[in-house]
Design a protein that fits this description.
5-stranded mixed beta sheet; Immunoglobulin-like; 1163 residues; mainly beta; Phage tail protein beta-alpha-beta fold; 43% strand; 22-stranded antiparallel β-barrel; 12 helices
Length: 1163
């Protein structure tokens, strides 16, 4: 039998990197600053790669050992050498029985030299393969490594080989080795070795063992015609239920977890042509709603887990993001998300993220847009109380844990990938051409009884009386008919030994938007991770640092495509903006021109340092230190050439900068011990100290008389400057007690006490906690014997707990003063000095908002865990709502923050399936499916009738519900839109002094904007070296319709459907109202007629990849090579009549389709 004396390697160099943040720079030098920083990061990354590679390459059999021995058995010396170097030494026990004792005294001697001296007087020799030493008798005529025995038949070969564990390199006994297509075979014995005689050289060996993935290996290598079956690594089969799952402050498995945790693997994100990792999770997690707000790759993203919990729409629903143990928090300057990032469908604001000034071209920047998806190993979404309560108030909206990729001990590897692609619009709105538009306008004036005129006054219609009525411009093609380009280049190097592991990665992304006149969005990232552990594995460190530089510049064409088709060109014959012709009309000049300059950039640094020490068996102490820094800059220049020479002849410029920093220290202690005959107890205790700062400054200069001066705000005749800052401090203690009995009864208790600087004295601390339990029924003998054979696992789990929230902004308990209110200066300056006026009424008595969570779930696995299913029911009730109550103007304040007794409930069902349906050597099929339904209800709101929310909410209904008029169609006599007079008072109106649906006014139709259900499913099919992945998302929802024009007949284009189905004469039953240049369809947007079924099934992502076989990669002298083609937004199936249910605003660009092709190569 072979014995593995694998030990541990010596210390490696601990690499550390010091990053220094530059103070805020003037906007003109921002780009140079960013480029300089990026260059230094790239230079530093290259240096680290070289140093680490040289360090790791120096290991292996070239390491040194120090041994002092006197008459020791050779076996004990081997054990010590292996312990010092981590190199496995394999030998047969019987071959060392007659060896001579050895004596030696060496210090820092080369490993190979010591080994040569040890075997010099022994009847042994050694061979080296893959950092493993094989000890053999000298007289053995068989070369163990070549594994070839003489055979009479040249078409056959006699084999001797060894099979080891892929990761640990330990020899495996009991492995079956069969010649494919025959009955010839063997079983490994004596240290994983096997012998097969007279095996055809063209044969293929089938290697199989319980608990390992079956593998097929050709007998002979096609590269050098030598045996490739002498040393085989067998990969263990890991059940889906036993895969490692990251949880709060630790790890677990799906089999043992008591909480609701969903994992999205980094490789699934890497398959998609996306900028932000958030977009890669669409449709992959039950109950998680992710919606992109615009076409920008870095734009704000709505993230909502299991429904909205707050009445106040100005507070975001974003979960807590934690990257390698450190929170990535964005502190909203004003305590609330900026209004410019408001979600168009729900009305709720969305975090403006890394841009706190509101000047980025993307309208908000997702906080994860500066993170490279290629650096992510896994994303865990924590949902229920058991999974989130240990984070206390920060986990009220759920938690998203992001774990970055790290190095592994073993052979050093270098991987590089490159992708190039294009993006283009999926279609155009069916709108009127010039003859139809002109006819529409003339008919509108005719219906109004007015004659169109070319001079200002009644009937003034320059679009059809002054402009060329034969001219035609397809404004959709003008605004978004560009072909965008997508570039993605990634490279990483990783490896290490038992004591030191490392990974260094770098990436570059570039994307051009379809609406851009020039410029692009770029991202460059560098990531470094170094992990170390002592020889005795007691002391461990982990250093992670990520630096990202994000830039977007150029000018977007921003106007709607509904400009009249005969509108003048944007530029005149001399290349100047054609303000003259537009000035005479009510049609606005198309936004976005070649003269304007707009840019936004941000640099994000994230660093963490974790250190742990195993004090005694089972007792660990550890601490995590984390720091995040984001600095953003914006610049918008509008030169004189871009301005209307009559109405606004002078240049203007706006400069802004904002930033966010976060520092966290988190010491912990954990103790694990056997408690009872079959019990195991785990106790965790820790504390959190966090400090967060956000700042922002905006300077607007007007009246520039020369474009040369635009880049200097000091040269602006008129300057308006605003600035704001916020600081947040947080402290907490937490603990967890976990107990497992007989590996089938699991109990988990979490507790946390939080302190927040956002509350007044006496209310700063809150207590939160949870209790989770799980029972593995399938491990009960009395249940197991009654279960069908196909059921391999059954578990019941449940949790109950309380989390909190302090997301109301900073300093809200203090009286605040300023020179303006809501951006409007209400008081006139006195002697040139603006007086201070009150902003916010003080209230030191508001306290923590609380959310009580309850969940129960059933987990079932079939066919030896190849199919895993989970069904969960949850209920969350949010009480003590923190809201900003609007106050009357006579109070002198805009609002006051206080706790509302309102209670909101979110409850629902979630179901998911993960299946490894087929797993064979040449074919596999994996499938994932999830679906969820969330029901949102306003359970209670005492004194609602006396609150400003009286006309907005109704007890028993969702807070996302709208109360609308009932649309009754087009009046056949008059051709106008009609609505039901529900209260029969002779008119259709809204009375906001009454609750909706009470009969006091005409709003009684309820439209719920919360999706009825949503989900997704994906399939991955592999046939030999070709694989196909397809991801689908689906949703059942109501959205605004886009067919009936809001103002048909005015000076803007309408849909062809609205034109062809318009009312034209009395008695006609039409679907669209009559055309009118005067009247509007006011009230239609407040009726149920404005909403329609926006459900859809979308093929979101497809990837086809080819992985080159091993014999071809060996010919190319590379470890791996793959090619792939990916596409996003392939098609959508929907009853929606507009362009796309994801973009419902008529005339706006639908989501783009992206197609990329690329290669990946490993060395």
């Amino acid at each position: 039998m072979y014995f593995n004396t694998k030990g541990k390697a010596p210390y490696g160099d601990l690499l550390s990197t010091k990053f220094t943040s530059r103070a805020a720079l003037p906007a003109p030098v921002f780009r140079r600053c960013i480029e300089s920083k990026l260059f230094r990061v790239m230079r530093m990354t290259a240096f680290l790669m070289i140093v680490i590679c040289l360090h790791i390459a120096a290991k292996g059999v070239s390491q040194v050992v120090s041994i002092k021995a006197r008459n020791l058995p050779l076996k004990e010396v081997f054990v010590e050498m292996s312990k010092q170097t981590g190199i496995s030494i394999l030998y047969k026990e019987r071959e060392l029985q007659h060896t001579k004792p050895v004596s030696l005294d060496v210090k820092n001697a080369p490993f190979r030299q010591v080994l040569d001296n040890l075997l010099k007087d022994q009847e042994l020799e050694y061979q080296i393969q893959n950092e493993i030493i094989f000890i053999e008798p000298k007289k053995n005529p068989v070369n163990f490594l070549r594994s070839e025995l003489p055979a009479a038949d040249t078409n056959t070969i006699d084999l001797i080989g060894v099979i080891v564990h892929e990761e640990t390199q330990k020899p495996l006994d009991g492995v079956t080795v069969m010649v494919k297509g025959s009955k010839q075979g063997a079983v490994t014995v004596g240290g994983g070795s096997y012998v097969l005689k007279a095996v055809p050289r063209t044969a293929i060996l089938v290697i199989s063992s319980i608990g390992y993935i079956t593998q097929e290996v050709p007998v002979m290598s096609e590269k050098n015609q030598k045996s490739s079956a002498n040393f085989i690594k067998l990969k263990p089969y890991v059940s889906q239920l036993d895969e490692t799952v990251i949880q709060a402050y630790g790890t677990t498995t799906k089999r043992k977890t008591t909480g609701d945790i969903v994992t999205v693997k980094g490789e699934d994100l890497a398959k998609q042509p996306i900028f932000s990792p958030l977009l890669g999770m669409q449709g992959r997690v039950a109950g998680l709603e992710i919606t992109q707000q615009n076409g920008s790759p870095i734009g704000a993203v709505k993230v909502e887990l299991r429904g909205r919990k707050s009445i106040d729409q100005n507070f975001t629903s974003d979960p807590l993001y934690i990257i390698d143990g450190v929170p990535l928090t964005v502190l909203e300057i004003n305590g609330k998300a900026n209004m410019y990032a408001r979600n168009s469908s729900s009305g709720n604001v969305i975090s403006s993220g890394l841009d706190q000034t509101g000047l980025s071209p993307s309208v908000g920047v997702s906080p994860l847009s500066a993170i490279n998806p290629a650096d992510i190993a896994s994303v865990e979404i924590l949902k229920d109380a058991d999974a989130t309560a240990i984070y206390g108030s920060r986990g009220a909206n759920g938690v998203i844990l992001i774990t970055t990729r790290k190095g592994k001990a073993g052979v050093n590897g270098f991987n590089v990938s490159a992708q190039q692609g294009i993006s283009f619009t999926t279609g155009h709105w069916d709108i009127l051409n010039t003859p139809q538009y002109v006819a529409m306008r003339r008919e509108a004036y005719k219906n109004d009884g007015i004659t169109p005129q070319s001079a200002p006054g009644t009937g003034y219609a320059p679009d059809i009386m002054v402009w060329d009525t034969t001219r035609y411009t397809d404004w959709q093609k003008y605004f978004w008919n560009n072909v965008g380009k997508v570039t993605n280049v990634q490279a990483d190097m990783s490896g290490g030994s038992e004591q030191v592991t490392y990974r260094i990665g770098g990436g570059y992304n570039r994307s051009t938007d379809l609406t851009k006149l020039n410029g692009a969005t770029t991202r460059a990232t560098a990531a470094v991770n170094v992990g170390t552990q002592s020889r005795n594995r007691r002391f461990r460190t982990d250093i992670s640092a990520t630096y990202g530089v994000l830039n977007t510049d150029g000018t977007n064409r921003t106007s709607s495509a509904l400009i009249p088709p005969n509108a003048p060109p944007v530029y005149d014959s001399l290349g100047h903006l054609n303000y003259g012709e537009y000035r005479i009309s009510t049609v606005l000049m198309p936004g976005g021109n070649k003269f304007n300059t707009s840019s936004f950039g941000t640099n994000l640094l994230m660093g963490s340092f974790a250190v742990s020490y195993n004090v005694t068996n089972g007792l660990y102490i550890r601490s995590t230190f984390g720091y995040n820094l984001n600095q953003a800059r914006s610049k918008n220049l509008s030169p004189i050439a871009a301005k209307d020479p009559v109405r606004d002849p002078l240049g203007s410029a706006t400069f802004a900068n904002s930033g966010n920093s976060n520092l966290q220290i988190e010491p912990q202690a954990e103790y694990t011990v056997n408690a009872g005959k079959k019990g195991r107890l785990n106790v965790l205790a820790g504390a959190t100290l966090q400090s967060n700062k956000t700042w922002g400054t905006t300077q607007m200069g007007n009246g520039f008389t020369s474009d040369v001066l635009l880049t200097s705000i000091n040269n602006a005749p008129t300057v308006k400057a605003t600035d704001a800052s916020a600081q947040y401090k947080y402290a907490g203690t937490f603990g967890r007690i976990g107990y497992t009995w007989d590996d089938k009864y699991i109990l988990n208790l979490n507790g946390r006490r939080d302190g927040s600087s956002r509350f007044g004295s006496g209310h700063q601390f809150g207590n939160f906690g949870s209790l989770g339990a799980a029972w593995i029924l399938s491990d009960e003998h009395w249940i197991r014997q009654h279960l069908p054979a196909l059921i391999s696992f059954v578990k019941l789990r449940g949790s109950v707990g309380v989390t909190g929230s302090d997301q109301i902004g900073d300093y809200q308990y203090l009286t605040q003063w300023g020179v303006s209110t809501g951006g409007t200066q209400l008081a006139s300056p006195y002697n040139g000095i603006s007086p201070l006026i009150p902003q916010l009424q003080a209230n030191p008595d508001f306290h923590w908002q609380t959310t009580r969570k309850l969940e129960g779930a059933l987990n079932v696995a079939l066919l030896d865990d190849r199919i895993s299913m989970e069904a969960a029911w949850y209920r969350e009730r949010c009480n003590n709502q923190l809201i900003g109550y609007p106050t009357p103007v006579i109070t002198g304040f805009i609002s006051v923050v206080e706790n509302s007794p309102a209670s909101i409930q979110n409850s629902g069902l979630e179901f998911s399936v993960n299946a490894r349906a087929i797993e064979r050597t040449d074919f596999s099929w994996n499938m994932k499916f999830n679906i969820s339904r969330n029901t949102n209800v306003l359970l209670a709101f005492p004194m609602l009738e006396k609150s400003p929310y009286l006309s907005r909410y109704k007890i028993g209904d969702p807070i996302s519900a709208l109360y609308l008029y009932h649309y009754t169609g087009v009046d056949p006599v008059t051709g106008v839109l009609t609505y039901e007079d529900h209260n029969h008072d002779g008119e259709v109106k809204t009375d906001e002094t009454f609750a909706p649906g009470t009969g006091k006014d005409d709003r009684y139709v309820k439209i719920n904007l919360t999706p009825a259900f949503q989900g997704g499913f994906s399939n991955t099919v592999r046939l030999k070296n070709v694989s196909l992945t397809a991801d689908f998302v689906f949703v059942k929802q109501m959205v605004p319709q886009s067919q009936i024009a809001q103002n048909p007949g005015n000076a803007e284009n309408i849909s062809r459907w609205a034109y062809e189905n318009r009312w034209q004469y009395p008695g006609q039953h039409a679907l669209s109202p009559k055309l009118s240049a005067l009247s509007t369809t006011y009230g239609f947007s407040a009726s149920d007629g404005n909403y329609t079924d926006g459900s859809y099934l979308r093929l979101n992502t497809v990837q086809v990849s080819y992985r080159m076989p091993a014999h071809l990669t060996r010919m190319l002298r590379v470890n791996s090579f793959a090619a792939n083609i990916s596409a996003q937004n392939i098609f959508v199936i929907t009853p929606y009549k507009g362009m796309d249910p994801a973009m419902t605003s008529f005339g706006t660009m639908p989501p783009a389709r992206i197609i990329t092709a690329g290669v990946t190569c490993g060395f």
